[in-house]
Each structure stands twice: as C-alpha cells, then as structure tokens.
Automatic annotation (TrEMBL):
One of its GO terms (molecular function) is glucose 1-dehydrogenase [NAD(P)+] activity. Its EC number is 1.1.1.47. InterPro entries: NAD(P)-bd_dom_sf, Sc_DH/Rdtase_CS, SDR_fam. This is Glucose 1-dehydrogenase. The keyword NAD does not apply. It is an enzyme of class 1 (oxidoreductase). Keywords: Oxidoreductase.
Length: 265
C-alpha cells in the first residue's frame, strides 16, 4: 500500500503546528508509527525515528531528509531499558531536547482462547506493550521534566476500554497502557508534561493484517462497523499530531478513541 511519503501530492499540506519541536517515534518502521513520523515532520518537527528494524527506519529517514526534514534514525528495542535510554540520549545530543514522545511500538501477541495462553505468550505481548511503554515513558519524562515540559502520547487501542474474545492478553496490555497514561498525567502535568493516549480501532496496517485470518475477514468486519470501513494510519497520525500540539494544551490523562464509532455502537 502506498503512503503519503511516496505520494505527497495525495494529501493537503498540513499546518506547521509543531515548528521547532523535537519528536521521538518508536515503532516507526511501519503502520501508524511510520505515518505519524511523516505527519510530525511535515508539521515542522525534527523527528527521531526508532524501531528494531534498522533498515526500515534508515530508509524512512532518508526519504524524509530528501523532503528537507530534519531527521535521525536510532534502532532500539523498547523492551531493553538501555536501548531507550540511548535513544533519548541520542535525541538530546543531536537536537538538544525532547518535546514529543509517541510511544507506538508494540505487538499483537497471540490471539487464542484464554485457556490456551501460556507464560511464553504472556511475556511475548506484555514485554513490548507494557514494559516497552513504561521504559519509553520514564526516559522521555526524565528529559522533559529536566527541560521544563513536553508531551507524551502512548498508543493504546480501543482494546484499552473494551474487550474482545481470544484477545485477553492484548486487551490487558492496552488497559495497562491507559493506566500508565492516567497515573503519569496526574504526576507530571503539574510539572509541565502532558500525557495522553491514542486508542485506534480497526486500522489498515500490517498489525491488523496479522490479527485477522484473512484480508476478506478483516474487510468484512470493517464494512459492518459503524464507520463502514477500516481507518487509515494517516488518520491516526493526524490525531496524534493534534495531541502533540499546543491546540491540546489543556488535554492530559485522556485516551482519545479513534475507532470510527465502534466502541459506542
């Protein structure tokens, strides 16, 4: 599937609401992370793209640099605290500060009946989805609190507010992400750091492709939803850009549902 980076004329030029900001995006190699890195850069931010797959983020960084954006790629595994500490240190060394952290990296784990889940599948999904977000939040916050402010946005899911059959572990991790978001917002908002989460629904991304047994099953579910379709990564990226901007200056501790109305049906 082509993206706005390959076809920039396909969408209007976004407003430069993030001029002179520095943003870190984890899980930037594909899907929502990639789309958000592009959106934040086009809104004026210097962007640090990070993921485990160095070749993917290097290619993204090269493409953004060709467009004239200030960008740095730093490979990291969010489960490893030392990797995230290095990511934030590299950002500060290059750009002097961290204004925005979009903690997007995560995994779907294994979708299976509750009683078939194992210790291994528990660790597989809780590692990146909870420990990874925890690592990314705490190291970004240390830099932001030291500099006097910043914005943290975690990628949760509509699974953070509702449940799904065969998705107990994934849903539990996303509820945990919202718990981390709300608690950190209480502690850090008075000190200048806003913390929110984005809660996407069915979005046309590689992660969703892995969850569904077939493309037809995914498309059929999306067509029967309130919106009548799956969302796009670019639509989620624009919502993240809003939360990152000063337009959301009075928003903290919030999980913004971007699910096409699914959770209220």
């Amino acid at each position: 599937m082509s993206t706005d980076l390959e076809n920039p004329a396909s969408t209007p030029t976004p407003p430069r609401t993030l001029d002179r900001k520095v943003a870190v995006v984890t899980g930037a190699s594909s899907g929502i992370g990639r789309a958000t890195a592009i959106e934040l850069a086009r809104r004026g931010a210097a962007v640090v793209v990070s993921a485990r797959r160095a070749d993917k983020i290097d290619a993204l960084a090269d493409s953004l640099a060709t467009e004239g954006h200030d960008v740095l790629s730093v490979p990291a595994d969010v489960v490893q605290a030392s990797d995230i500490e290095h990511l934030i240190e590299a950002t500060v060394e290059r750009f002097g500060r961290v204004d925005i952290a979009f903690n997007n990296a995560g995994t779907e784990g294994v979708f299976a009946p509750f009683e078939e889940q194992t210790d291994e599948t528990f660790d597989l999904v809780f590692g990146p989805n909870v420990r990874g977000v925890f690592n990314a939040m705490r190291f970004a916050a240390k830099a932001m609190l030291a500099q006097g402010g910043g914005v943290i946005i975690n990628n949760a899911s509509m699974g953070g507010v509702i449940g799904f059959e065969n998705a107990a572990l994934y849903v539990a991790t996303k509820h945990a992400v919202l718990g981390l978001t709300k608690t950190a917002a209480l502690e850090w908002f008075p000190r200048g750091v806003r913390v929110n989460a984005i809660c996407p629904g069915i979005i046309d991304t590689p992660l969703q492709d892995r969850i569904w047994p077939s493309a037809e099953a995914k498309d059929r579910f999306a067509a029967e939803s309130v919106a009548g379709r799956a969302g796009t990564a670019e639509e989620i990226a624009r919502a993240v850009a809003f939360l990152a901007s000063d337009d959301a200056a009075f928003v903290s501790g919030h999980g913004l549902l971007a699910d096409g109305g699914y959770s209220v049906a």
